[in-house]
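DM from R.C. (forwarded with permission)

"hey, sorry to bug you on a friday — could you get me a structure for this? deadline for the figure draft is monday and I only need the backbone to look sensible"
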Amino acid sequence: MRLRLLALAASSLLLTATACGSTDDSNDPSTDAGTELPDTPSGDVAPADRSACSGLTVTPGTYDWTLEHGGRTRAFRVHVPTGYDATKPTPVVLSFHGFGSTEQEQEQLTGFSALADAEGFIAVYPRGLNFPEVYGRGEPDTRGWNGEACCGPAQLGNVDDVGFVDALLADLDTRVCTDPRRVFANGFSNGGFFSYRLACERAQRIAAIAPVAGMLGVTDCRPSRAVPVLHFHGSADETILYDGGDNVLGGKPYPSAPESVRRFAERNGCTGPQQQTYQQGNSTCVAYTGCQPESATASLCTVTGGKHAWPGQTLYNDGTPDLDATLQMWRFFQARPRP
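My reply, with the result:
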């Protein structure tokens, strides 16, 4: 659940030569790119709409599923909510764990499964790859995502995690009734970096994102449409620095939290004044307005004095009780289906 910098250092030193000689598996034939839109990232294709599903048999509960992608077995946990109707298209919230964490820890950290039961969406917790899975050796407690600027073996080995998400969504469609216009992504730390990457490269699939303590680490970010963003960050975060930095071992420099949000506001055509949308205790949210469309706001929730934590989860790294990130991002998602 934290950036395991010592483990990453040991594994990175051991595997530097291997990483430098690694190849990108983004051309994996298991990824179906479909028909691409002009001037959009490869594979960024809007799925067909649906009004109903038939023949699906999965019932409410929590499942651990796997699929094959890029020559590896990839895993993900799915919580199908109480009251789920297998004939009715249902929203999906993808939640990506931080570096050195797991899908089970992300489920506990966020509390999304309990909220899914109350609100009626499907919560999905994908599992990142570690050093042994990418290179065959190294520290196992190093699971993460290729967020370009961060972190670990997925980033060093240029793992096609975006292609994995494509495959995951395709697999999910064979099991449960998803709503293609209401698929959302969030993540913590390294998972937050990766949610930004999905907004850059899969704007036709991901309706909106909500990173927590993770920045926009993609240097060539060209989303094919305006993607709403709700970013949460503690001003005293010593792991992913609020003001940006170059402190991720093996990673790349990353912008500040305000700059990450500002860049999406610019891409989203937000020309109106910034507006405060939330304030309680040490937590304040401010949104860029006048966006195209208006719902494509880019917002930053700052926890003054906050550490590397998930707001609302007080048991981990002193997360603030003044802001419930899980609830706030779901409300944000609810109002922003993909056009």
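R.C.: lifesaver. The CA atoms of residues 69 and 164 lie 6 Å apart.
me: no worries. The beta strands are 61-69, 72-80, 90-96, 122-126, 178-188, 209-212, 229-234, 274-280, 283-288, 298-303.
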